[in-house]
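Researcher: We're teaching a course module on how sequence relates to structure. For the next exercise, students receive a sequence and then see the predicted structure as tokens, so they can try to spot secondary structure elements on their own. Here is the exercise chain.
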Amino acid sequence: MVLEKVANIIAERIDCDAATILPTTKFEELGIDSLEVIELLMTMEEEFGTEIELEGTKLATVSDLVSIIEAKI
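Model: And here is the predicted structure for the students to work with:
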């Protein structure tokens, strides 16, 4: 499941429990700033083997990221 994989990657990156990362969790709440979001996107691209383009899409929550990835794979 994409959400579980994304949560695990984020949790590893910020050193927290993946179970605390919900679809509605905002990156801001996790202490992830805009630069770290870009770095996170690069990690997701490698993990899922797809290019993630935002093109005006705002990533505020974990669900936003999961939706973009699911649309690509």
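Model: If you want an answer key for the exercise: The chain has one domain: 2-72. The chain has three helices and no strands.
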